[in-house]
Design brief:
The structure is a single chain. With 115 residues, this protein is α+β, with helices and mostly antiparallel strands. The protein has 2 helices and 3 strands; from the N terminus they run H-E-E-E-H. A 3-stranded antiparallel β-sheet has the order 1-2-3, covered by helices on one side. Helix 1 (13-38) packs antiparallel against helix 2. The longest helix is centred in the C-terminal third of the chain and has 31 residues, at 76-106.
Length: 115
């Protein structure tokens, strides 16, 4: 006895081609959005605004600004920690934005090979 699937369900060349076209469309949208994100700048601060970092969507540091009062030769470790915190937060912003935008496009599908 053969099982019958409702119309529009199941395999077949037409359905497979449709899925491939849809996957290609999603992949193209994701590549376009990734390119847009790479052109964006992400700014963060740490230490109450004493350290400011701007990075690109490619996760490259574009600028690093330090308030003069944060520079204490007796406490370089604190300055280093604040720079690290600001850079890490900027990277998180890029990754969160990228993930959020990709989920909007893919509908939260996890399709291997799509960006």
């Amino acid at each position: 006895m053969k099982a019958r699937l409702p119309q529009g369900m199941g395999g077949g060349p037409g359905n497979l081609q449709s899925m491939v076209r849809q996957a290609q469309k999603i992949q193209d949208q994701m590549k376009q959005k990734q390119a847009e994100i790479e052109e964006m700048d992400f700014q963060t601060t740490s230490g109450g605004g004493m350290v400011e970092v701007v990075i690109s969507g490619k996760k490259e540091i574009k600028s690093l600004n330090l308030k003069p009062e944060i520079v204490d030769p007796e406490d370089i470790e604190m300055l280093q920690d604040m720079i690290i915190a600001a850079v890490n937060e900027a990277i998180r912003k890029v990754e969160d934005t990228t993930n959020e935008q990709m989920e909007k496009i893919s509908g939260a599908l996890n399709i291997p090979g799509l960006v």
